[in-house]
Amino acid sequence: MIERFASEKEKTKYYRYLFRSYVEGSKVIKCCPAPGRSCDVHLTPGSGNFDVLCLCLLSFCWNCSKDTHSPMDCESAANWLAMNSSDYQNPIWVRENTVPCPRCNLRIIENQDFSMKMKCLPPCGYDFCWRCRGEWTEHGGETGLDLYTCTHDEFEETVFGNMVEAAADRYKDCHEKWMSNESLMQIAKAKLQKLHTDLIPDLSSKQLATVQQLEFIAEAWSQIMECRRVLKWSYAYEYYLREDQVEKQAFLKLKQGNAEIPLQKLYNYAENQLNTLLDSDGPSENFNKFRSDLTDWTSITRNHYELLVRDLEDGLSNVVPASTSQEAHNEEDASGSSSIHDD
Fold it and tell me: Do residues 235 and 174 touch, judged by C-beta distance below 8 A?
């Protein structure tokens, strides 16, 4: 009946709603969240990877539909983005709008509905009261109190000023590095878009290669963009490490510094050699070497960053705290001494 009686405009609207209804009921298809886009994105079942990339080059998280934020979980990423849109670098704002978790000291932003129940971010997840800092099991539920009531004395921080300034300074440092990588990521994204529209077709005519044969260049710039995204979120990850996790903080800084090395080499090679080929008058005898080298550098860089993401998603579990290492060393010494004594 639709085909027979509806106008073309009505048909278009009907089939659009029909498609969206199908997508909303699917577990492996989603519409791209970019404004004004109608792309459909497919998830590979069982892959364990929830980072998806649309044809429009928008990368987003399958679970929350926000910008891709691995290696951060959705909740921590949302909290970080909320801080970015606030005055978190201002100690006064921090004092009035955040509270430190009693268990791990991470500062948590006040609930938007002003309820007293606070929940620390993963992996801590501690439930406590905004007003008294007490464990939430002493509030609500069986006590008969709601989420907005606390009958305990209000907690006062005796060293609040220094703690607030330290939290603001730490956030500022991580945020500046976040923004730097965000800027570099956007530059790589613009380059990738220009490759598809102008540069690859131009290079195709000069090097007598098909567009498909030149896709390795786009793959390199796509990898550069992805690496900047990972580095960007690694600084948000760094902010959420507890103050007493000094070994993990040091290890992460080392990993971040090491990650810059292959990425910078890939960027320099892709940028400089591409410009050289574009400036040539005809086919270059170095083209095959450029393809081989750029493909290798792309693979090396990809492997490096996949390991970085894996380490961060595992909570840097391969880092052993100094106290634990010392205890193990003492136990070995004691065991050795005992063996010598028994002899």
Answer: yes
Residue 35 corresponds to which tokens in the numbers above?
A: 């404004």
- Is the distance from CB of 263 to CB of 224 less than 8 angstroms? yes
Instruction: Give the containing element (helix H, strand E) for 270.
Output: helix 246-279
Both tokens of residue 232?
Answer: 């960007």
Contacts of 146 (CB under 8 A, 6+ apart): 140
pTM of the prediction?
0.71
Does the pLDDT at position 21 exceed 90? Answer: no
The answer to whether 136 touches 99, Cβ cutoff 8 Å, is no
Asked if 164 and 95 count as a contact pair (C-beta separation under 8 A), the reply is: yes
Cross-strand pairs, 107 = 100
User: Worst-scoring range by mean pLDDT, 48-52, 59-63, 237-241, 273-277?
Assistant: 48-52
Could you read off the pLDDT of 288-297 as tens digits, one per residue? Answer: 999 999 999 9
Q: Which burial class, exposed, middle or buried, applies to 251 when counting CB atoms under 10 A from its CB (0-12, 13-18, 19+)?
A: middle
Q: How would residue 340 be classed by pLDDT, with cut points 50, 70 and 90?
A: very low
- For residue range 154-191, what is the model confidence (pLDDT) as tens digits? 776 654 456 667 777 888 899 999 999 999 999 999 99
CB 14 within 8 Å of CB 24 = no
pLDDT at residue 310, rounded to an integer: 92
Q: Between the CA of residue 14 and those of 1, 145, 202, 318, what are the distances in Å? A: 12, 50, 41, 54
How distant is the alpha carbon of residue 124 from its chain centre?
A: 19
List pLDDT tens digits, range 186-216.
Answer: 999 999 999 999 999 999 988 888 989 999 9
Does residue 71 have a cis peptide bond before it, meaning omega lies within 30 degrees of 0?
Answer: yes
Q: What is the DSSP string of 7-76?
A: -HHHHHHHHHHHHHHHHHT-SSEEE--STT---EEE--TT----EEE-TTS-EEETTT-SBP-TTS-HHH
The chain-wide mean pLDDT, for the chain, equals: 80
